[in-house]
Amino acid sequence: MGCVLSSNGHQRRLAVVCVTSKVQIVETAESREDGYHVTFRVRYPEELLSWILGWGADVAVTEPESFKNRVSEEIENMIKRY
After folding, report:
1. What is the mean predicted confidence (pLDDT) over 2-18?
2. Which residue ranges make up each domain of the chain?
3. Which residues form the WCX domain (predicted)?
């Protein structure tokens, strides 16, 4: 089950940007009309893969494209398994 953020009783989606860095931190977090937008600095975007997948359909990776593709690949592998 994914975690759903709510604001005034309305579901909000989480959009994620991953930026490569030596440390893992939340660089920016802001609430927008279409949901929350968060930028993470990580050594390797793969560090966030399980956490991203845990949000289910309530999360969208917006960049980098290579990590979006990695998330999509993992979801496809899960579908094949089940």
Report:
1. 47
2. 5-81
3. 22-78
